[in-house]
């Protein structure tokens, strides 16, 4: 018996020295990763990053996307539980609807991490994201630097995404005081179903018709919907004349910035958030506690005082990006490629290739 124990511990020590503690602890861990959709540029990128990071640590990842269908997402999560996952990372289509799946998983002792978007359940093991209210402030600030009076359009994100509520809170922190002063009039306020660029185009077409194109600025909530709105603005000769905000520093968004149409975007370095998700998932799957999280109440995270309970959280910083710093912050950091951003800029007007 003693001899057997000695040989086992010898094997373990050798494995640790060869593969490192985490990968030994990650062996045989199955991580379920559930996305709301793969329509937005960032989600498939983060799925690949998570797969790569988990593989490097010896863990297995099951990835699924729910095509903006909240019921399908819950079914996919149930299915992951049946497939024996040890932990689940979720980008929720609907923060309220996904709470049922998190509560079910908790009953089966399977910890869930809400990734980027909050899920309205006190049974979350962790919620990790960016400072979403600051995203909204940066968006409004970026537009107000160009135009700080007149007729404004507010274009919110998906109504089922708690982030959209937080972005709007930040936007109004900057805009409301100017409305109160009578400097700004909000002439239209719409929320874009599913964060769909096509929905944004249709909404903006109707707004421009209703306002006879008499709009001075648009506070939009991500690159996808902003570029959708810009389609309608372009058709009316307003693109590049009326400032508009974005988010996510997508390739198309940064390209539109250097071409003078999108005014700004918000850089959220997902290369920092994905490793955090995989490390926390492995820690939870090993039954260990995650260090460095701070408790927030669901009421403060949702601006809805009727919600009870707290969630352990971690939020990363965001960076305001416009034509003056897109090259340094986005291109030189490799977040987007030089060729993607400057492809339609004449060679002699481009900055040097980093
Ligand atoms: C938000 C996310 C943004 C944006 C949007 C559309 O929740 O924080 O980065 O991409 O969803 O998917």
List keywords for this structure.
354 residues; Rossmann fold; three-stranded parallel β-sheet; 14 helices; 18% strand; globular; binds beta-D-galactopyranose; carbohydrate binding; Bact_Solute-Bind_Prot2; SBP_2_dom
Description of the structure:
It is a single chain. This protein has 14 helices and twelve strands. The protein is an alpha/beta fold. α5 links the parallel β3 and β4. The protein has two domains: about 180 residues, Response regulator (Rossmann fold); about 170 residues, Rossmann fold, CATH 3.40.50. The protein has a seven-stranded mixed beta sheet with strand order 2-1-3-4-5-11-10, with helices on both faces. A three-stranded parallel beta sheet has the order 7-6-8, sandwiched between helices. Strands 9-12 form a two-stranded antiparallel ribbon. The model has no long low-confidence stretch (mean pLDDT about 95). Bound molecules: beta-D-galactopyranose (GAL). Beta-D-galactopyranose binds next to loops.
């Amino acid at each position: 018996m003693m001899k057997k124990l000695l040989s086992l511990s010898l094997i373990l020590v050798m494995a640790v020295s060869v593969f490192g503690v985490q990968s030994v602890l990650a062996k045989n861990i199955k991580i379920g990763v559930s996305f709301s959709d793969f329509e937005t540029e960032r989600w498939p990128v983060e799925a690949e990053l998570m797969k790569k990071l988990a593989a490097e640590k010896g863990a297995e990842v099951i990835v699924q996307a729910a095509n903006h269908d909240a019921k399908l997402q819950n079914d996919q999560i149930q299915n992951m539980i049946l497939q024996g996952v040890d932990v689940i990372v979720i980008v929720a289509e609907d923060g309220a609807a996904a709470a049922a799946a998190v509560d079910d998983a908790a009953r089966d002792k399977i910890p869930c991490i809400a990734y980027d978007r909050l899920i309205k359940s006190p049974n979350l093991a962790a919620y990790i994201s960016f400072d979403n209210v600051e995203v909204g402030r940066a968006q409004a600030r970026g537009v107000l630097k160009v135009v700080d009076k007149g007729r404004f359009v507010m274009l919110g994100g998906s109504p089922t995404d708690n982030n959209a509520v937080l972005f709007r809170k930040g936007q109004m922190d900057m805009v409301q005081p100017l409305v109160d002063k009578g400097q700004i009039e909000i002439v239209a306020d719409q929320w874009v179903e599913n964060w769909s660029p096509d929905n944004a185009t249709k909404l903006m077409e109707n707004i421009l018709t209703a306002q006879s194109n008499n709009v001075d600025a648009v506070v939009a909530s991500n690159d996808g919907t902003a570029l959708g709105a810009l389609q309608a603005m372009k058709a009316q000769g307003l693109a590049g004349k009326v400032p508009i905000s974005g988010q996510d520093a997508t390739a198309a968004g940064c390209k539109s910035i250097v071409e003078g149409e999108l005014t700004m975007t918000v850089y959220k370095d997902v290369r920092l958030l994905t490793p955090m998700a995989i490390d926390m998932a492995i820690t939870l799957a090993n039954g260990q506690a995650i260090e460095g999280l701070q408790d927030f109440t669901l009421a403060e995270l949702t601006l809805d005082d009727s919600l009870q309970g707290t969630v352990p959280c971690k939020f990363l910083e965001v960076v305001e990006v416009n034509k003056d710093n897109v090259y340094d912050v986005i291109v030189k950091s490799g977040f987007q490629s030089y060729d993607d951003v400057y492809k339609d800029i004449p060679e002699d007007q481009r900055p040097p290739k980093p």
